Amino acid sequence: QVQLVESGGGLVQAGGSLRLSCAASTSIFSINVLWYRQAPGKQRELVASLNTVDYTGYSDSVKGRFTISRDNAKNTVYLQMNRLKPEDTGVYYCTDGGHWGQGTQVTVSS
To answer: CA 78 to CA 69: how far, in whole Å?
Structure first.
C-alpha cells in the first residue's frame, strides 16, 4: 500500500515562498500525483496535478505562482509556492487518487 507523507509547511508572510514535499513509499514514476488544499470551513480543492508524462495542471488561483514537479530518484513530488497570499492558507495534501497523506499546514500572514 502506498504511503504519502507531506512536509514543508509553516508560517510565512505574504509574498514569501514555501516548498512542500510529498514523499512516497513506492516509486512515483508511473503514478499521477495531485496536491489539494483545505482552508478552514471550506471544501478541499485541487491546486495542482502532475501526470505520468509530466503534464501539469493548476487551479486558476495558483497558476503562475505554484509549480509542481517530481524527483523520481527520491520518490518525491514537490509543490513550489511563490508569492504566497493569505488566501493560500490551509492544510495541503498530496494524493495519487487513492491514497492521501496526513497533510501539512501552510499559514500565510498578511
So the answer is: 5
pLDDT of 81 strictly over 90: yes
Give dist(CA 26, CA 4) in Å, integer: 9
Among left, alpha and beta (phi > 0; psi -120 to 50; other), residue 8 is left
Locate cell 513506492: which residue?
Answer: 26
**Residue 1 pLDDT:** 81
Residue 24: all three cell numbers together: 512516497
Exposure string for 42-54, b = 16+ CB within 10 A, e = fewer: eeeeebbbbeeee
What single-letter amino acid sits at 29? F
Q: Give the total residue count for the chain.
A: 110
pLDDT reading at 2 higher than 90: no
pLDDT band at 27 (very low <50, low <70, confident <90, very high): confident
Asked whether the beta carbons of 72 and 29 are under 8 A apart, the reply is: yes
Cell of 39: 482552508
